[in-house]
Amino acid sequence: MRGRSDRTRCSGYAGTEAHGDGALRIDAWRARQDDVPSRSEALRRLIDGALQDDKPEYFRLNNREKLMTWLLTEILKNQIEERKDKTNNKYDLKKTKLIQEAIYGGHYWSLNWELQGVMHNHVDDPKDVTTVVNILDMWSFIERAYQGFSNADKVRVQQESGYGAYDPKFAGFDGNNESTHLSIARFLVEELGRFESFKGRDFNSHFPTVARYSQMATVFERMRPSLIMRELSPDQVIELLKRV
């Protein structure tokens, strides 16, 4: 009985300590708020904030990060001023000054406004990357095979696939509604050097293509294992293009 009583007292004591420490931290958080909410309201806000991870975070720097960023901007400013080619100096110095002024005044929101290409929370979904890679892979096979067809086979493909007098080509993705896919495709080709046959293209189809291209890619996936040391046949290209 004594052992049980000791364990009970120890357990209760530890729980009280943890609760007390948590309460102190909550009270400290409450004190930093403009309206000093009640403890129950503070708990509600903290829980609500923790559960809403999809909301964009407000950008801010602690003192150590401020110092490091300021030092980096000073180094960058000196490097810009020492350039032999002064073409972009005015623009680059303006951006450097913006960062420094944002730190001086705490105007971090201005960085979100002016540096939207950097200050964002977007991360590519691996599923979207896979979709784009599969589509680019499929279209590289289609275009390469078509270029190797005889004139008679090209005419047949155009007529039976519904392409008319046009050569079948990868149109890209819709810049308005499929911008993520477009951006991934452009990055793969222009920055990573993959699928080089598409290099230099616009990639903006100006109409939705992901759904249709994905249907084509599903069919192409069944053909892919047989495409070792050979290209798509006219019949296979027609089968794929009929789904566009």
From TrEMBL:
It comes from the Bacteria. Gene3D superfamilies: yfbu gene product, domain 2. InterPro entries: UPF0304_YfbU, YfbU_alpha-helical_sf. SUPFAM superfamilies: YfbU-like (SSF116960). This is Uncharacterized protein. It comes from Rhizobium terricola.
